[in-house]
Amino acid sequence: xxxxxxxxxxxxxxxxxxxxxxxxxxxxxxxxxxxxxxxxxxxxxxxxxxxxxxxxxxxxxxxxxxxxxxxxxxxxxxxxxxxxxxxxxxxxxxxxxxxxxxxxxxxxxxxxxxxxxxxxxxxxxxxxxxxxxxxxxxxxxxxxxxxxxxxxxxxxxxxxxxxxxxxxxxxxxxxxxxxxxxxxxxxxxxx
Length: 191
What we know:
Blueprint: H1 7-18, E1 22-29, E2 32-42, E3 45-53, H2 58-72, E4 78-79, H3 85-89, H4 97-107, H5 124-133, E5 152-155, H6 166-171, E6 174-178, E7 184-187
């Protein structure tokens, strides 16, 4: 197996990093790098380039950290380049080329973010988003709610249309609703 990150690309990304445009977001456990991603930022435009994980969910943690960072700095979107079930499960969705180009024309000319230092308080920025879209335990396979221990009932997509992200509706085919608190859970065949 090979990699698409050939030596010329490695050199280019090192040069972008020295110029302040390429950044890494890393997940460390007990002093060991276990996952992460790198991105390119120009103005207020952030382009996710590649993710890796040596331990389960390590790249998801890095992506969540990038989302938190972007929210603190009022960056409205991250270009993740591919439409995958995995990214959709994390909230990604496609936009038209026209919409993307309009967005780029607005944000590329904005001042660059100079300080990419991460502060753990940035995680608080995700709390509202998690609550809004009920992103707790998306792959629930039990019959009980993790929040209130209420019974979960399988419901049609139409019953949860206003309660989950549009990309979730696209990629997941089984939804469960807690009879007590109304939290939505999903599991899909495309994950």
